[in-house]
């Protein structure tokens, strides 16, 4: 993944940009070969056979790919440029919407094929390409793209090609810049300046990391990298945090579980803030709280219901549609744009958002009256609605149920609201919130426990396991060492796993459980939740082994998708997934705390 705080690109090991949305994460793709062979791409690929090594340049989201061929060695550096002069917390405020690519000869000679195939609107548009003397420009469609390079590009029908040779010490540079139709034609960075702009982008990322590198535990490097990835999924102009920069990468090859994740879920974004609090950057909280308050219209009452997700610019209507002209990744149809989950009822959002507000209470300082009211509205909504059935945090598309995780997160909402009350001024309702919090707790302890399974289960009255029960100790609802909680952890570890990795939930008939056919892989986040729960329970050896195993499924750059096919080790689902890197940060922190903490005796069982 390349990112600039506004949009993201995916580059494969052959040096091909196969996914790029501009100017935002949720914009229609300019290159979508990821989802269809004819979806467009921008490739710089060595001619003939080659070996590949890749890395992120330290402290950055700039990728260096080293190609070794029979005739030589060359390095390709790829970056989405940040604005000139940006550094630290300003990274991403004024991006030039420009992709920078530079090949450097290291030894011998290497020939590269250059191929530019722009296909705006998810491959629907085949723009005209014209040579400009120092590159090519597109004409037609909703975008303008210009590529600048000293290499003679030959424009054909909706594509441009060239072959370039680099010897040791030589450089070949290209810059591709985007602007919307109707504006002045874009001017890409001149080839002689591309190397310097890439260095500036590297330094900008490093300055952000230097300002926010606060985690110092044994897993420092892994936490630091995941924090950088999460920063790369943050839409800097508003503070929104996307779940992933892609759409429709399937949970099962050939299946229908293909969703658009390029939006800001309250759940995902709130958990991302928690991870950034642990690992890197408390400064993101103010932007996110402002975004959520404004996106929700400053209220979360009956007149302004809080959605579970929004567009990165604050859009409410994220209506889902299918893109039938795209074959999908490995013929996994349908490809979707938009996400119908935006209209679902998910009661967990109140707890996730109030937990983030509580976590950042000191960083946020004195709360503005609008935020005071918004926080109080969230607590009042949790108190009023916790008895309702909902779609649950896994966005089930079947019948609403009384999901355990939703009840627990309503308890979290009320618990954190009580703790935030001194900051909420005249909107605070401490006694009412505390009383309702205790009612929620009693209901969860009584109705959420399955005597038959000997565990807390997916929903009231259900015997089905759900990994979301692992959130109970992570949010402080129950200690991990409490007997029933420990039994639940053991049940999930023993019965809700596939070759040791955790599934989200079990069902005799998955179609009836979530309204969809087919299976899904093991969930990376849930596997990290189990690591955290085991660490909280004092089982640090078991937790550490699972942490290493889950983290080992990352790709060669350290990036994690949403799921893993544990039988063959392949990543599945949208990529890279914020949730997965959130889980890594939380699990690493739990492991490090457990290793440093003295053992303690387990508390008594809850009254139920």
UniProtKB/TrEMBL annotation:
GO molecular function, one term: hydrolase activity
PANTHER family: TREHALASE
Tagged with keyword Hydrolase: yes
Transmembrane regions: none
Official protein name in the record: Glycoside hydrolase family 15 protein
Keywords linked to the UniProt accession: Hydrolase
Residue ranges occupied by any GH15-like domain in the UniProt entry: 228-588
Residue ranges of domain Trehalase-like N-terminal in the record: 1-168
Species this chain originates from: Streptomyces spirodelae
Domain of life: Bacteria
């Amino acid at each position: 993944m390349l990112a600039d705080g506004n949009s993201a690109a995916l580059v494969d090991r052959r040096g091909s940009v196969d996914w790029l949305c501009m100017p935002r994460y949720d914009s229609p793709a300019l290159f979508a070969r990821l989802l269809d062979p004819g979806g467009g791409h921008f490739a710089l690929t060595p001619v003939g056979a080659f070996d590949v090594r890749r890395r992120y340049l330290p402290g950055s989201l700039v990728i260096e790919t080293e190609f070794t061929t029979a005739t030589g060695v060359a390095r390709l550096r790829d970056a989405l440029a940040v604005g000139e002069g940006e550094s630290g917390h300003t990274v991403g405020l004024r991006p030039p919407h420009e992709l920078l690519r530079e090949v450097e000869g290291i030894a011998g000679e290497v020939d590269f094929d250059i191929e530019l195939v722009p296909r705006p609107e998810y491959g629907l548009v085949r723009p005209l390409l014209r040579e400009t003397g120092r590159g090519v420009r597109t004409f037609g469609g909703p975008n303008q793209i210009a590529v600048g390079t000293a290499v003679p590009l030959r424009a054909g029908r909706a594509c441009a090609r060239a072959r370039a040779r680099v010897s040791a010490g030589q450089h070949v540079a290209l810059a591709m810049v985007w602007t919307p139709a109707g504006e002045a034609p874009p001017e890409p960075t001149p080839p002689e300046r591309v190397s310097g702009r890439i260095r500036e982008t590297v330094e900008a990322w490093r300055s952000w990391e230097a300002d926010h590198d606060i985690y110092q535990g044994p897993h420092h490097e892994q936490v630091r990298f995941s924090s950088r990835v999460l920063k790369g999924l943050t839409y800097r102009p508003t503070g929104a945090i996307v779940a992933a920069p892609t759409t429709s990468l399937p949970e099962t090859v050939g299946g229908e579980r293909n969703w658009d994740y390029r939006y800001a879920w309250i759940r995902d974004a709130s958990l991302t803030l928690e991870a950034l609090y642990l690992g890197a950057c408390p400064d993101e909280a103010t932007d996110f709280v402002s975004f959520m308050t404004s996106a929700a219209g400053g209220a979360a009452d009956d007149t302004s219901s809080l959605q579970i997700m929004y567009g990165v610019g604050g859009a409410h209507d994220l209506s889902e549609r299918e893109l039938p002209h795209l074959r999908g990744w490995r013929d996994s149809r349908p490809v979707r744009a938009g996400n119908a989950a935006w209209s679902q009822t998910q009661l967990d959002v109140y707890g996730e958002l109030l937990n983030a507000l509580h976590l950042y209470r000191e960083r946020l300082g004195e709360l503005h009256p609008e935020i005071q009211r918004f926080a109080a509205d969230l607590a009042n909504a949790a108190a009023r609605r916790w008895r309702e059935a909902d779609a649950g945090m896994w966005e089930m598309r079947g019948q609403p149920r009384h999901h355990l995780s939703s009840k627990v997160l309503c308890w979290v909402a009320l618990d954190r609201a009580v703790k935030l009350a001194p900051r909420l001024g005249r909107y605070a309702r401490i006694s009412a919130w505390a009383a309702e919090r205790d009612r929620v707790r009693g209901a969860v302890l009584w109705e959420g426990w399955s005597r038959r399974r000997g565990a807390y289960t997916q929903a009231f009255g259900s015997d089905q396991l759900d990994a979301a029960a692992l959130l109970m100790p992570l949010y402080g609802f129950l200690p991990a060492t409490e007997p029933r909680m420990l039994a639940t952890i053991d049940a999930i570890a023993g019965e809700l796993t596939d070759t040791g990795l955790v599934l989200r939930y079990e069902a005799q008939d998955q179609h009836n459980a979530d309204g969809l056919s087919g299976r899904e892989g093991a969930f990376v986040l849930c596997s990290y939740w189990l690591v955290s729960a085991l660490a909280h329970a004092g089982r640090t050896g078991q937790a550490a082994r699972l942490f290493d195993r889950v983290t080992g499924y990352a790709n060669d750059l350290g990036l994690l998708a949403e799921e893993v096919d544990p039988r063959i080790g392949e990543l599945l689902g949208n990529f890279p997934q914020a949730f997965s890197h959130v889980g890594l940060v939380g699990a690493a922190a739990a492991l490090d705390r457990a290793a440093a903490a003295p053992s303690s005796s387990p508390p008594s069982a809850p009254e139920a």
